[in-house]
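Onboarding guide, step 5: your first structure request.
Type a short instruction followed by the sequence, for example:

Predict the 3D structure of this protein.
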Amino acid sequence: MNKLLATTDDIFYLAEIYYDVYEGLYPDQMMRDAAAIKAYLLSQEGFWFITKTDKGHVVASVLINYDQENLIAKAYGAVVRNEYRGQHLMEDLLSFGIDYLKEHTNGVDIIYSTTRTVNEAAQTLTENLGFKKLGIFPNAHRTNEYETHCLTAIVTPEAIKKRNADYKIHHEIEALFNIVAEEVPLPKLDSIIPENPSQPLIDSGELEVIRSRKFVSYRYNSLRENKQLEFEFFPFHKPNLLILSPDQSIELFCHLSESDGHCVVIGGKMPSNLNFAELFLKANKLLRDSGARYIEVLIRADRPKIVESILKAKFIPCAFFPAFQLVGEKRHDFIVLSRSFEIFDFQNVKLKGVNQSYLEQYYKTWKKMSLTPKMLGL
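The system replies with structure tokens like these:
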């Protein structure tokens, strides 16, 4: 078996392996688009690694995107042909890719991935390579059925040395943090109940959805370059949908996958005294009407007032990512929160280690947020 970087000569075989293994249902549309595959291979977004037999057949594939600004990488799209499973091909290929990054980039402090939970193999693979478990995403993606994924990451000692730990965490996130702190490990953080806003909050008013991909991308990049975005960190995602007010005082950028309804909120421009909870409650409805069935947002952990607002909008904490974003010489922790519009079904989920604890904590929070005191037996 030969491990190497894919080239434009492999385009057909790359599309073929994802189609064959996932029966045409792989949620990333790029894997079904020869032009998109070619564009990625010719871009600077990352690296596409493959395993070939001696006869030149592609039998395994994985992509690793790379963010030079934050020294982070994301491994995704891991696939092995059914008849070649059980031979540790993906573990060897991903290890090859990680070593390649270390040798051919400006450095990498964080390497992360999400793993499927329909079986334990993917969780075992990342565990063997030193990935730590950081959280769980219930019903995050849809292939033949709704899939729950787990967040895993290699958090290097260099990342921990740069980590900003001089803050107090929102008290509703403390239980989740404590699970992660045992896994990584991290020193304990004190918790805080956020104070009420120091000024009256304004409502967002009327909002509407714009789905012009090129305009949304251009507008987002313009605001980002001029440092006009309140929060804008969701690496390796590009916006294709915009929620805005008629006067454009509010602009909320999202990426919505049309293939499976997975949506992430990437960033936004808005007044500092805006009622974030009310904004996200309205955004939830607009996104659901636009086809979203799952929404995810990243919030810096040292901003408890914003975290409080997102919690009031019925988002549930599902993962904690230490030392994720690099700002100057410091790396900042992030909380991942999600909201699903589907009925949870975990019958086919097979979880390893603390992933079970993450699911139990998620479900506990969901009950607290979603059920009335009478239904909870209080």
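Each response can be followed by summary notes, for example: The two ends are 60 Å apart (CA to CA).
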